[in-house]
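During the no-cost extension, the postdoctoral fellow (Dr. R.K.) reprocessed legacy sequence entries with the updated structure-token encoder. One reprocessed record is reproduced below for audit purposes.
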Amino acid sequence: MSKSLALELSNYGAKLIISSRNESVLNEVKNRCKFPENVVVLLLDLEDYKSLPTKVVKAILFFGSIDVLVNNEGIHPDRFAKLILKAIKNQKEEVYIVRAKEKN
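Re-encoded structure tokens follow.
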């Protein structure tokens, strides 16, 4: 969730779960909210797929339910380029493995 949206929703007393990989930024946003007692910080890395089911359960347990979900995931251009290069490398490795198996 963007900082400005979290801050605005907090003005209305909304209960918020804010998430990202950067705990210090999350705590900064929480502390700037009008009602920081209604804000929970949840460290979350969307690339860590295996941790997502546990994170969902944690999120629900904080307030008992989730009424609205705002997915505002963004990727820095440098990080995006690294992810693309990693995907290409992995794909090439998979092709080599398949070709090696075909030869055997």
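The first helix runs from residue 3 to 11. Residues 74-104 form one domain. The remaining legacy entries will be reprocessed before the final report is submitted.
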